[in-house]
Design a protein that fits this description.
The protein has a six-stranded mixed β-sheet. A six-stranded mixed β-sheet has the order 6-7-8-9-11-10. The protein has a five-stranded mixed β-sheet with strand order 1-24-21-22-23, with no helix packed on it. It is mostly beta strands and 446 residues long. Helix content is 14%, strand content 38%. It is elongated, with a radius of gyration of 24 Å. Helix 2 packs parallel to helix 3. The chain folds into two domains: 161 residues, Jacalin-like lectin domain (Vitelline Membrane Outer Layer Protein I, subunit A), CATH 2.100.10; 263 residues, Endonuclease/exonuclease/phosphatase (Deoxyribonuclease I, Chain A, 4-Layer Sandwich), CATH 3.60.10.10. The longest helix is centred in the middle third of the chain and has 21 residues. The chain is built from seven helices and 26 strands. InterPro entries: Endo/exonu/phosph_ase_sf, IPPc, Jacalin-like_lectin_dom, Jacalin-like_lectin_dom_sf, Sph/SMPD2-like.
């Protein structure tokens, strides 16, 4: 058992994750294909030139202050879009047409682990989908301390030829598999230009529901769960909320955070060059807007993450959520480490629930807690090893002031404090031979 002396902790430039954070709130999301291919390649039949249209889109993004915007076809007019927008958090472009994916995100909230993934399959049967590296993006979007939603932005293969259908089906399956591997216990948002319609069964857009338990907000709120059997293509602007576009918004809650859509709308009327002229649209796509409410769980919550996007994902969330009341009191915390955190594990006092993550290296250390004792404070430090960000140090302190630690203390640390009367019951993150990414899971003492 190692106690961290206050004099050492005082020297650290640590970020403190304080208890008593927001437990619920609201947000909105927008999906918009901004038609940013060079005009010489595709003019989209819209009024005005693309530079001016893109400037207006950026202005309207700023005016409306949407919380998370996923754009597609953000190619050659990207600089103009960002010049006129003012969102705090924005992805860097991956390049213009033939170089980049055209996928970008703008947000009022920060994220971590942003990743771009290229499609494994594409088709030029109906167009030039293979001439630019389309695909999808992933980010872990942070709404509040310990409240994360895994957000995906995609632009699937277009066209209706057999090869297009095959490629698009593969695109949907690729995103679905990535969600399964990366976001198994996370709340999820998937939205973008799917190029899918429910009347085209070969697209298999239902895979998001059947394999990933995602719900289409439009289907839920505007269609009452009844899928269209006859193609009803929306005009631009859409004249009805029940007609279908290829752009979609899917969502899924998690045991940590409940998500509930409260409204859905097509909002092309917000993106007109002339508000008095409904034909003055800025893109050939209807933008989608959905409002959500969220609420943190009353029985299981997370700290913030520290570490990097390497290794393999792990999570104790599902197993803990399946228990009636997992209590942190009287647990045994086990660590392994030397220069870095090699492994972490916890065994609850119920005698049946235990978790272990990481490798077999390092020296073992443990903290056996009394019946009313529980870990309510976890300090993590991160650093670089072999160009990967990993957890270099972990120290856990109980409500009785006992502590255990391992690894190398540095000056890039996060102190996470459990809500009052809550304690440590598990973890989620990423691991391999060592621990790469980590967050604590808290539950009420019972």
């Amino acid at each position: 058992m190692t106690l961290l002396r206050p004099s050492r902790l005082a020297l650290l430039a640590v970020a403190v994750s304080a208890a008593g954070v927001a437990a619920d709130g609201t947000f909105n999301v927008v999906s918009f294909n901004v038609a940013g291919l060079p005009e010489i390649l595709q003019n989209n039949g819209e009024s005005g030139d693309k530079t001016n249209n893109t400037a207006l889109i950026g202005q309207k993004f700023a005016e409306q202050a949407f919380d998370l915007i996923h754009v597609q076809e953000d190619f050659n007019y990207h600089a103009t879009l960002y010049e006129y927008d003012n969102h705090t958090y924005r992805t860097a472009t991956s390049g213009g047409a033939a170089i980049g994916s055209g996928l970008n995100s703008l947000s009022n909230y920060e994220w971590r682990d942003f990743t771009r993934v290229k499609w494994d399959e594409c088709s030029n049967a109906s167009g030039a989908d293979c001439l630019t590296p389309k695909g999808f993006t992933y980010m872990r979007w942070r709404l509040a301390e310990g409240v994360y939603v895994d957000a995906y932005n995609l632009h699937a293969d277009a066209g209706t030829e057999d090869d297009d259908e095959t490629a698009r089906n593969a695109n949907v399956a690729q995103v679905s598999a990535y969600i399964e591997a990366t976001s198994p216990d996370a709340a999820v948002l998937v939205f973008g230009d799917t190029n899918c319609r429910y009347t085209r069964t070969a697209d298999d857009i239902d895979l998001f529901s059947t394999a990933n338990n995602l719900t289409d907000v439009w289907m839920q709120l505007e269609r009452g769960g009844v899928r269209p059997t006859v193609e009803d293509v929306c005009a631009n602007p859409a004249q009805s909320a029940t007609c279908e576009v290829v752009d979609k918004i899917f969502y899924r809650p998690s045991p940590l955070v409940d998500l509930a859509p409260t409204s859905f709308s097509y909002v092309a009327e917000l993106f007109l060059s002339d508000p008095a002229n409904s034909s003055s649209t800025l893109s050939d796509h209807n933008p989608l807007l959905a409002d959500f409410s969220w609420a943190a769980s009353a029985t299981l919550r997370s700290s913030d993450f520290l570490g990097g996007p390497h290794g393999t994902g792990f999570s104790d969330i599902s197993a803990l959520a399946a228990l009636s009341a997992p209590s942190p009191a009287g647990a045994t915390l086990s660590l392994r480490g030397s220069e870095r955190l090699d492994a972490v594990g916890i065994a609850l006092a119920d005698g049946a629930t235990s978790f272990s993550h990481g490798g077999t290296g390092g020296t073992a250390a443990s903290l056996v807690m009394e019946s009313g004792e529980y870990v309510n404070n976890v300090t993590l430090c991160q650093g670089k090893y072999n160009d990967h960000t990993r957890i270099f140090y972990l120290e856990a302190t109980t409500n009785n002031g006992n502590a255990v630690s391992t690894g190398t203390l540095n000056d890039d640390c996060l102190v996470s404090v459990a809500p009052e009367g809550w304690g440590l019951v598990g973890f989620w993150g990423r691991d391999g031979d060592e621990v790469d990414l980590l967050a604590a899971l808290w539950a009420p003492v019972s």
